# Entry
Amino acid sequence: MLVDSHCHLFHCYNFVEEHILKKIEEDFSYLVNIAIDDKEIRRLIKEQFKSKVIKNAIGLYPEQARSFNKEKANEFLRYFDELDVIAIGETGIDFHWDYGDVKIQEALFRFQIELSIEKNLPLLIHSREAFNDTFRILKEYKFYKPFVLHCFGYGVNEAERFLELDSIFSFAGNVTYPKAEELRRVLKLIPLDRILLETDAPYLAPQKVRGEKNSPFNIKYTYEFVSEFLQIEKTKFEKIIEKNFERIFILS
Ligand SMILES: [Zn+2]
# Structure
């Protein structure tokens, strides 16, 4: 059975119809649906997926940093009374887009880091063109639950630093791209029990369906590719990923 540890169902489908839910139940043991702003979180609370497979993660994406204030923080806290949540995120620092300077983004990031520690929930981290600041901030905290570096996109040097912090590395479809050699060097370096796979659907479709709108079901291509690359039999590899997921999100 497959696990997609990071996707955005609300960006994939206008409405998650019954037949999609059914297929998710058939193919996956777990799928983490990420809601990244107030609008999406409220929609999630309203629609609540009737599925044992779909797990909720809620966070305020770096894009929300400029509008973040005390009122927003309190509002975010209230969501936890209305929804079962298995992780906080995605949150982090992104200098690729203009989401505000480091101070502005850091305040929102720290709010969610501290909340994840307080609530004893894993944290899902988005870090783009911001290794130094992401690392500096994370290093300051003592985490009881691991944090997941979603769609890991840095090189070997950065991965080695993150390994010191007990991070979990989640690889997306871009690891299958022909030019992603450095990312595959990272993949080889990471201990198996610290790897997760994700689609980040509808973004980053794996090579086989590249150019199309991604869907969680395409995770099978990433599984195929990574298990072959690491020379692990596919079913065995699926079990390893599932166990990792359960250890991080479900059992502890
Ligand atoms: Zn995402």
Notes: The mean pLDDT is 96.
